[in-house]
Amino acid sequence: MHVAWLKDRRNSFAHRLIDEDRVEHDEPCAWTFDDDMADEALVRVSAVARMLEEGWELQLTAQY
Q1: pLDDT tens sequence across 2-58
Q2: Are 47 and 5 in contact (CB under 8 A)?
Q3: Could you tell me the CA-to-CA distances from 56 to 42, 49, 51 in Å, in that order?
Q4: What is the structure's pLDDT at 30?
Q5: CA torsion angle 39 16 14 49 (round to 10)
Q6: Would you state the pLDDT for residue 24?
Q7: d(CA 27, CA 33)
Q8: What SS3 state is found at 45?
């Protein structure tokens, strides 16, 4: 859930940076990367990091 959300917004943000000089856009960006979106992204990145850490710890404890 968080990863898909982050991927979509990251792609939208990247395309806005790359396509900024283009006059015509084939497909408009679906999301605006503003301050609120940046805050939400940080919250979700933190959640993904916690899930990865928990998974890694479970993997390590299962090995011993």
Answers
A1: 888 888 887 777 777 777 655 455 555 566 778 888 888 889 999 999 999 999 888
A2: no
A3: 21, 10, 9
A4: 62
A5: 10
A6: 53
A7: 16
A8: helix
Q: Extract long-range pairs of 48-54: CB within 8 Å, 24+ residues apart.
A: 48/2, 48/3, 48/6, 51/2
Residue type, 27: E
pLDDT at 63: 79
- Please name the residues in contact with 33: beta carbons below 8 A apart, sequence gap of 6 or more: 9, 12, 13, 16
Token pair for residue 31?
A: 């999301």
Which position has the token pair 């940080």? 42
Q: Which two tokens stand for residue 13?
A: 């943000």
pLDDT at 54: 92
Tokens, residue 36? 């609120």
